[in-house]
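pinging the channel bc i need a second pair of eyes. not urgent but kinda urgent?? the chain im working w is below, pasted from the shared doc
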Amino acid sequence: MNFKLKHISKLSDEELMIQLMDHHSDSALIELHARYSKKLVGYFYKMLNKDSEKAQDFVQDIFLKLMEKKHLFDPSKKFYTWIFTIAGNMCKTEYRNPYKISISADEYEISDVVFQENLAEKDLFNLLLEKSLNGLENHHKETFVLRFMEHFSLQEIAEITETSIGTVKSRLFYATQKMAKELKDYNPNNTKPYVFYVTMW
């Protein structure tokens, strides 16, 4: 296919990567950044305990890694599973860093002050949901975020996390059961949190 006949914005992610690999196209890199930077910021924000500055830094880093590792991309594969695999590995490396800033459960403690301020029931539920999510082990949290917040398929999650679909299902089952148990007393009547209502399979 002659990519020159197509405007850069009309190229698929995979075609853009070919342009980047074969021609070092700045336009292709800019287009990929436009398509994925916001989504990646959201992913890193969720995975890194809502540290917005670190999430932005990680997005800058991942596009540098993209340039460094572009020769490793297989154009027959989906770009978005490849880039999220890199993102997931970056988070795993961060979790292993003994000097990283972690958020303790104490910082999420729901005290009497919350109720004195008449925090809305839905807001309280969302706060507890966040606490429950951050209480998961990293691999369970990653799988939950990819499925229910980033809306990847089971097959895509298996590729991103480099595991089997069976492992993905097992992790989702554990995560949703654990969170549902913790949140069962805080389920507002006027909302349907995805923890309980999203179909897993």
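so The two ends are 37 Å apart (CA to CA). and The domain at 1-102 is CATH 1.10.1740.10 (Rna Polymerase Sigma Factor; Chain: A). — does that match what u expected or am i reading it wrong
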